[in-house]
Every structure is written in structure tokens, then in C-alpha cells.
Amino acid sequence: MVSVAIIGSGPYGLSLAAHLNPLDVSYRIFGPCMEAWEKHMPPGMFLKSDGFASDLYAPGKGYRLSQYCAEYGIPYAPVGMPVKRATFVDYGKEFQRRLVPRLEETMIVRLSEVPGGFELETAEGERVQARRVVLAVGITHFPYLPKVLEGRPRELVSHTFDHGPMDAFAGKRVLVIGAGASSVNAAVALREAGAMPELIARTNRINFHTKSDDVRSLIERLRRPRSVIGTGWRSKAAVELPLVFHALPQDLRHRVVALHLGPAPGWFSRDGFEGHVPAHLECHLQEVTETGSTEAGSKVKVRYTGPDGKPGEMLVDHVMAGTGFKPLLSALKFLDEKLAAKIRTAEETPVLNTYFESSVEGLYMTGLASANNFGPMCRFACGAKFTSKRISKSLQKKLRAASPALVEHAEAAASASLQRD
């Protein structure tokens, strides 16, 4: 039985594995490397986070995005220069090759409890037992569709996460729902692929994220300090005080995560969107139905109410929802029913202790699944730094309780690793 199994190999899973290396903890990590970033986002998109906030994390000096870009001659700046999605994916894969070489790029299709720990089943049928399991699945299982869109055929209604390249929509009229980064990025990518996108949203304006200034006055730095998730004291506190956030009342935590840093496309997507993609704002969807098949295929009829309250109607080839992600426990279909029933939830999302451990001893959750516990930082890749440090510390404590002699060896190995760094 391996000590730890990590399910997921995005920024959180890779960063945690890198933190376990010097502890000499036996672990296995599963999942296609950086898959969500590589296959479920438009190829030409940019990260909304600045360069300094787009690292993966390892103990000591680690391996930063700036170092990767310098080695491969890729333009880089800590702020003000957007990071290409392709650059981030390639960086993540290089991080994996250097620091997590034992990654097993297979999917876990079932997770259940067994005496002394857990059992994982891979897509190939292998069964692996582990004393502790960390779910680092990112957003992969959590795309959210409003009820008005549920139950429709995927060829007619989909989520932006269902797509990478948009070439299949060339020549088609596509209605994109939402006003955030996913929606705007998808609309721009659709237009560039030869589609005819339009956007519909409840908001009265598209709140494009502002470009970071590389030089800021002392007054501006004091008034709106910079953090990895944005400027302002609220964002700064969310980054610096996640354990204080964990201690806040549950209702307040959930409300802050839902409202802080709302939908905001990157500043760099404005030029490709404004003047090119028709936007229907202050509109509310009422009904989405499939029409009869024609020679060109089925259509989607969309009924909505406009800003004046009057009804409107559109006939499109496809509806694509950029309606975000919700970390509902029920979305983790690979969880055994008995195991899932034992996990405590609040508003259908996991309740975690201060070490990211669920109510099932030995089962940890990271990333978006932990945001309602530790704050909005965990909605972004940059949250992997605090998370990986915190979970590895917890695992080390449990290791100490299980075998003092083994801990002494692990600590000596960690000290030697840090000295090499």
C-alpha cells in the first residue's frame, strides 16, 4: 500500500508531488499532464494572471516560469505581458519532466475505501491501494450548466470547457452565454475559426480586467497592494490569510468566494471582441429548445427577455455556455457511493479542515474544491503554493505519528535537498 496517491496532474497535483519528493514519502500520481489547460481551452488564449503569478511550486528555488522562459528564449515579464496558454502548458510539462518524472498519465475511474486506506482503479483496470489520497482534479469535473440548458444534446448545447480548438464551428452561428473570461475567450476563438458568434449575458457591461502597471507610485501601492490574484486589500488578505478565512463563518466564506473577483475577461481580449462579436446585454434566458431537423441539421431556438422586459428570440446552430464552474461533490462521479456519502458538505461543496482534509480521514481536496474553505485564491493556479505546503506538512505529521524512525530519515533527506538548492 503506497503512502499517498494524487489524482490529478495540473498545477496543484504537480506542485504537491514536488513537495513530497524531499520528504521521501512514497506516492503515485495519476492523470494526463496539464490536460485541462491543453485540451479544454482555446489554443490562442492568454492567462489572465501575470507572469509572476503563474508559477508551479517546489521547495527551495523550485522551477519558476521566468526560469523556463529564459531557458527557451520566450518573452517574459513579471507584470504587463500576458502569458500564452501554450507557454503555460509547455512549462507545466517541463516542470513535470524535471520534478515529477514518475507521473502515470492514466485516468482514475473509481475511488473507494478499504481497510487502512483507499483503493483506486485506473482506466486500464489496475487497482492501487493508498493510505491517503489527494484529489487535485482542478476544474475538470465541475463545469456548470444553468437549468435552462440541462438535458440538451451536446451537439447543440455545450460548455466552453468541452472545447479546445473551435474549427468545427466554422460557418455556424453560435450563441455564447456569459460575460467572463471563458465566454469572451470562446467568442473570440469562434470568430477566428470562421464561426459567427454572438454573446448574451445578464450583466449590463463586459468588465474587462485592467492591465497591470509595472511601475506604481508608493501611494498606489499602499492604496491597492498587488497580490497573485489581483490588486486591492481584499485580494491581498485572501492570499496572505487563508487560515483566517477558514475560521470565518461558513455563510460569509461562501459569499466572498462567489462574489469576489467576479466575471472579468483579460484586457488583451478586448480588441478581438469589441466591434467583432455582437453582445446582447441585460438579457435573461427563458427557454432553449431544439427545432426540427433541416438539411443543414438541427437548430436551437433561444427565447429571452431584453433589458426593456420585452421578449426576444434567436435561432442558432449551437449554444455554448461560459457559465463557470461549481465544485459540487456530486460531480465527482468516480467516487464510490459509500465513500461520497461519508464526506461532509456545505451547500453541496466539501467541508475541509485546516489541512485540506475532508471528514473522511486521509482524503484531501485541493483547488476549486477547496475554495469555499480557504478563499478565492484556491480558484486559481497560484493557490497551489499554500496548498502544497500545507498538505505536505500534514502528511509529514501523519508520517511522524506512524513511524518516528521513518520521519527521522525523511527529515534528513529534506534537509539535504534544501542544502543542494
From TrEMBL:
Which InterPro entries does this entry report, sorted A to Z?
Answer: FAD/NAD-bd_sf
Q: Which domain of life is it from?
A: Bacteria
Do you know which SUPFAM superfamilies this protein is assigned to? FAD/NAD(P)-binding domain (SSF51905)
Pfam families attached to this UniProt entry: Pyr_redox_3
What is the designated name of this protein? NAD(P)-binding domain-containing protein
- Organism from which the protein derives: Acidicapsa dinghuensis
